[in-house]
Amino acid sequence: MDWSAVLISLKTASAAIVITFFTGIAAAWLVESIRNEKLKMICDGILTLPLVLPPTVAGFFLLYIFGVKRPVGQFFLDYFGVKIAFSWSATVLAATVISFPLMYRSARGAFEQVDKNLLYAGRTLGMSEWSVFWKILFPNALSGILSGGILAFARGLGEFGATAMIAGNIQEKTRTLPLAVYSEVSAGNMEGAFVYVAILVLISFLVVTGMNYVTWAFQKFNRR
Amino acid sequence: MSRLEVQFSKKLKSFTMDMEFSMDGECLGILGASGSGKSMTLKAIAGIVTPDSGRIQANGRVLFDKAEKKDLPPRKRKVGYLFQNYALFPNMTVAENIGAGMRGSKAEKKRKIAEMTERFHLSGLENQYPYRLSGGQQQRTALARILASEPDVLLLDEPFSALDSYLKEELQLELREHLKQFGGSTIIVSHDRDEIYRLCDRTMIVEEGCNRICKDTKELFLCPEKTAAARLTGCKNISKAVKTGENRVRALEWGVELTVAGRIPENLSTVGIRAHDFLEVPSQDTAGKGAGESGNSETDRVQKECNCFPVVVEEEIKSPFERTVLFRNAANPAGSMWMKMDDVSRNFLPRMVEVEPEKILLLTD
Predict the structure, then answer these.
(1) Which of A149, B53, B164, B208 is the most buried (most CB within 10 A)?
(2) pTM of the model as a whole
(3) B287 lies in a domain?
(4) Is residue A23 within 8 angstroms of chain B, CB to CB?
(5) Please, what is the Cα angle at B155 between B153 and B161, to 5 degrees?
(6) Which of A117, A128, A136 sits opposite B85 (nearest CB)?
(7) d(CA A215, CA A145)
């Protein structure tokens, strides 16, 4: 039993959800406000791509962009002294990219559910776009946004394919829980794998139950 | 003086809107069937939709002008919009809703919210969320919220359609008082003619996105001039018609010839008779006058002048305070006509009806 895997996993998923939560909402709002329907569809397609691609393909692209010998990876190494590939930041990068579409799509769905007349009413009352967003759109979409956030967190926690591609499987550095399960099983140690599996099942169950609770609490509050 | 000038066109899926009207601080009603472009007109004024061309001006301020490439965003137009479902913010209390569009310091807002809740009979409900309010309270909150933002123009989109009918009349009286206090240009969109009749100084009839006719409300109901106007003001009986003499017209769909009062317009297309304007001819007269063919020339003349003709009743519908009878012309059965009577106690069905020449509406398209 190696507790570092638990720690790395939680740290990675937490860092990733902080990033995806805000970028996902911002992307949803931006795409939502595109007037050209075709452009909207194309932007939506690109942002959703990591959800439908096999994670190894997403990982391949990440490696292609952020690899030490690639321009972007080289840039980070030269100017910031940060080596992204095969470091902890690579696990965060992989989890962020893979969980982003879940956050983005949930936020968009939540925004679309909000009665458009509420937004028009806010505008005709003289509210700025900024207030319309923070005082009307966001609070009325909050339950959908929060359950999207929880889903994205769970997806980040379970990320395997892309992480293996760009972060590798380095013990006490990039070995997250799913990678630990894989390593134990490939070493023929089923009992060792069982502990990690149990922890993952427990956390996932708590997350899904938490999501249900959030939805329930909001429905109770927002009975219209 | 509060003045609103509207002129715009916009291509929609099934027709092209071409709207033009102006008003001076009065209350204008827009009557039209669903999908005729009533709400679209309000949305164009409020800036929620953008017209293809035209110019909209309120109190001398240009809100939209295609030629000058001017298109003020909704928040700068000072146009209050009451949505059909009131669009109260569900995440805010009554007080927060009313304060949503207010400017000024916190103390000032608080004072104004208190004033508005008082004026709109919402005292005690300040901290309630909209879902806890009745339909009438929701409407008051929405109206208070709009008037608190101090608009130049007020647009009401089907203000009573979300309410139970027993609440409507009370709230209409209330709304009339608030509109008097407001004093600026107000537009009420509705398909309910009673609502329009009670609240609006002038009424515009809209069909396929065009202003068909716009005049004093009472006059419009009395003399609708256009077929669409007659139909929308509740005229049940409308038939294609042709002029047959100096003061005679033939209603083609009913198979009767009628004497009318007033000048018959050159481009007459239809005649209309309101269901309440048919009168039942008492039965003893009916016996004396016969069925029309056998009578002497004197009774024929009388019958012609008072538009008297025998009928066959097809159906009778009774409501608590009204009797509706559906009938056809007996001599020349064609399309059916509606007649409404106030005396519900009688069981007798009319065998002969008449309609005064003054009551026949001469309509053009």
Answers:
(1) A149
(2) 0.82
(3) yes
(4) no
(5) 160
(6) A117
(7) 10
